Amino acid sequence: MKPKARADRALCLVSLGAVMLLPMLLLAAIVIPWLSRISELDDRIATSRDQLMRYQRLVSTRPALQAELEQARTNDAFDAFYFKAPTQALAGAQLQARVQDIVTAASGRLISTQILPPEAQDMPPRIRVRTQIQGSTETLMEVLYRLEQTRPFLFVERLSVRSAARPAVSSSPALVRRHLMANQAGELTVRLDIYGFVLGGGS
């Protein structure tokens, strides 16, 4: 076979191979990303299906939870735990009145009481008041005892005590001693943050 014919044949084979390889490359360039995209979509569908099943399970438990909550609201056994009021404001007024009664019964003086704003993350909701009272050490002990015994349950969150026995700087040592002796069982100024729980409506 002549060299020229041999070269022509090789060129023909190369051209034929190129013609056949080009469509295969184009097909691979299209098919591979498409298959990858299909796999990604399959994964997303599987994840979404799992999430949907979890949400369906949660939704299916909602009627039972609502029934339990309604039972708790109407169950007299829960009276020892919760204030019952349609709103947080009314529950706060109930708590303020309860604190007023406790302080009066303990022979203390209620200086101020303030309803603190509710915290959204509390569940069940809490009602909180900040109270300042004056009285003796016995008054403070009696207030704490009555808070412990009252129903619905009340809890002390913060407590600070300040003595009213503060001698003047310019007093003589004898006057200071007499002043301290007079205030040895004297008054205390007490600040309490008190809270309880409420079953009721919105604020």
Features:
2 domains, 203 residues, 56% helix, alpha+beta, single chain, Alpha-Beta Plaits
| CATH topology assignment of the largest domain | Alpha-Beta Plaits
Please give the alpha-carbon distance between the first and last residues: 103 Å
Pairing-aware structural class of the strands and helices?
Answer: alpha+beta
- Please compute the radius of gyration using only Cα atoms: 40 Å
What is the architecture of the largest domain at the second tier of CATH?
Answer: 2-Layer Sandwich
CATH level 4 superfamily of the largest domain: Ribosomal protein S6/Translation elongation factor EF1B
The largest pleated sheet is described as: 5 strands, mixed
Poorly predicted runs: 178-184
Beta-strand share of residues: 15-25%
Please count the helical segments.
4
Identify the CATH class of the largest domain. Answer: Alpha Beta
Mean pLDDT across all residues, rounded? 77
Shape: rod-shaped
Order of helices and strands: HEHEEHEHE
Number of strands: 5
